[in-house]
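Entry 12.
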Amino acid sequence: MSEALPKDVRPIAIVVIAGAIMSILDTTIVNVALETLRVDLHAPLSTIQWVTTGYLLALAAVIPLTGWSAERFGPRRVWMTAVGGFVVSSALCGLAWSAESLIAFRVLQGLAGGMIMPVGMITLAQAAGPQRMGRVMSVVGVPMLLAPVLGPVLGGLIVDNLSWRWIFYVNLPVGAIGLVLAAKLLPHGRAQGRGKEGELPSLDWKGLALLSPGVALVVFGLSEYGTHRSFAATSAWLPTVLGFGALVLFVGHAWRTEHPIVDVKLFRGRGFSAAASTTFLIGIALFGSMLLLPLYYQLARGESALVAGLLTAPQGFGAAIGMSIGGRWTDRRGAAGSIITGIALLLVGTYVFTQAGAHTSYWLLSGALVLRGLGLGGTMMPSMAAAYATLRSDQVPRATPQLNVLQRVGGSLGAAVLTVVLQNRIASNLGVGGSESGGLAGNALSAEAQRRIADPVSAAFAHTYWWAFVLTVLALVPAALLAREERRARKARQAGERPDEPQRGERTQPPAAVAG
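Predicted 3D structure (tokens):
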């Protein structure tokens, strides 16, 4: 059936989803345990924050290696190695004896986890082909949107009822299952890249030396900007400037190199550029807004971490439905219609939170979250599917890390900007210092104190959600460009012509499976 996941892709999708659940969930599940880690490991908050920051830096730095690794060693071998490393490093994190050892093990975990999702998507994209990517991405994207919802809930349950070490130990059985499934279900052979048949691709060492540190420095600078609420701090502006400088140098290098580690020439294609830009902006909307949700319920409404996590669940349910509808719509009518409709729903749901106060009905907020979920489900993966649909099969291994880096950097940017806006607004509304406002989330407030700050804190969140609203509006621009490109391609097909392929000559139909 056209609406079902293709039978030849189902085994690969099962493996990819198992890895995605493990790697993406781990990016959100640790956040609720930071205060517990600070107390148990006798470390200041400025140190224990590196448990998250170090993981994200390692994650961002290793993603550019994904395309070359899949072409050189094969997606199956790379995926199993990455998952195996993730399982081992998770066990080490659970055994950590100090803040420093935990941070070091989290960096190892990020280096392994960064490749899990991109390699799985490379395998899926080449197995499914562009004509079926809508349905495939809608299935694989579910854990990507559910993880920010389920992570805080699961983390709260573990911290409240077990040791924080089980936040890491929970990865062991999931990883073991994933390895068993991969050994049986993933295809053998190397990913089909740009080299000649049987030729092993060489690694672009100069590009790697510029790109990976550049991405890591930008993410670190944004993280420090969020911490200090200003680029005046050397730890914020210096790495950001150096990171952007390295990225500019990389673009110049990649444009002149025949086989760069990331193919920037793909952005000459208007369809790919529009879809990739949408992915970046929706990444800002997803991860930035998801940071605000549990904080609103905790700070403005006085709920516990577990209850706050549960109250974000309606967005996950909406996302699952939106994924299914968006995937079928993308395969039948193109991605642009689903993306534009999804952005509209996302805007409506976000607008409700711009009006939220200290006593707004939870039913109204839950309904808004369902709309936000439907919108995210109808935009995130269809935009990535649209990007894949503009590519030849040999371009997929190098395009996948680009889309993942854009999404993660977009998420880091959104989180940094919205955190700064929120902290500044809370400080302004309460008439306190920034450090005091930033620490409210970790303090146990009396009922009287909670009532006293509820209204000004709610107003701060409403103000911050206006920023999220505007950032989401920006995604309409590349979505409109994508719609124009799809209409142009459709007219060309109806006229019996081949649409112009912006990348490299005429587009060839990709094979149905990974080589080998």
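Annotation: Residues 1-195 form a domain with the Growth Hormone; Chain: A; fold (CATH 1.20.1250.20). The first helix runs from residue 10 to 29.
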